[in-house]
Amino acid sequence: MVTATAQDDRERTDSVAAVIFDFDGVIVDSIHPDLLACSDLYREYGDGALPVEWWAREVCGRPDSYERLFDRLLAARKGGRQPDRARLRGRLDELWNAYFTEEYVRLMPDVRGALTRLHTAGLSLAIASASPRRWVERWLQHYELSHWFTAVVTGDDVAVRKPNPSVYLEALRRLGVAASASVAFEDSLSGITAARAAGVTVVGIPTPATRFLDHSAAHAVLDDLSVVSPEWLAEVRQAAC
After folding, report:
1. Helix residue ranges per DSSP H, the chain
2. pLDDT of 152-162, one tens digit each?
3. What is the Cα–Cα distance from 190 to 238, expressed in whole angstroms?
4. Rg of the chain over CA atoms, in angstroms?
């Protein structure tokens, strides 16, 4: 028999008060246009087609990730006209400008539905992104999502980016919610590491470009946000305890 006190303790443990979303790859699909830009750069300066599995593992969502791409490109250019790092960076900026547009940066599936369900249930919602604030706010405003979020924390707000947990710890501070009462959604391995290090229950939601990576460090893994509800979050939180 479960006593009233034990039942109350379990409900407090399982309850979810806040949901924290990574931005790129969870709210908007900037992963695909980024892959397109990097693929074009690799075709221009590399030794064939960009190895997508290598890109997903070594570049996507990692600190200093594009320096890894430049290192690989520079190492591949044996003889002939050798580009320098500044030229590679400048060309990647040009390709980003071509691909980071409304045509390519689209909402991930069922984002509006999930935000509506969670907000209606009274949960606090936040963004915890490694990207610059101007980028996050640009797309939140474009897709008219800003009003859903109590806190928006970006890479500009912390000294160290993911996989360091700073951005999650700052989001929790602004929300005034304990890590034990929060669930995060992350697409990248570095983001999953950051959320777990902050003590937050984390759900992996890989993009098509990163589905083959090992997301088992997350407490649960989903294809998209369509099943997300307060009840589902409580089940995930309970299983993680």
Report:
1. 4-14, 31-45, 52-58, 65-76, 85-99, 111-120, 133-142, 166-175, 189-197, 230-240
2. 999 999 999 99
3. 24
4. 19
Tens of pLDDT, residue by residue over 225-236, are 999 999 999 999
Q: What is the pTM of this model?
A: 0.90
The 10 Å CB-count burial string (b at 16+, else e) for 200-235 is bbbbbbbbebbeebebeebbbebeebeebebebbee
* Residue 130, both tokens: 């490694």
Q: Which two tokens stand for residue 232?
A: 């589902």
Residue count of the chain, please give it.
241
Q: How many CA atoms lie within 13 A of 33 on its CB side?
A: 20
Planar angle of CA 52, 93, 90, nearest 5 degrees:
105
State how far the Cα of 26 lies from the Cα of 225, in Å rounded to an integer. Answer: 9
Within 10 angstroms of residue 94's Cβ, the number of other Cβ atoms is 13
**Closest-CA residue to 95 (of 23, 39, 29, 56):** 39
Task: State the virtual CA torsion across 40, 46, 48, 52 in degrees, nearest 10.
Answer: -60
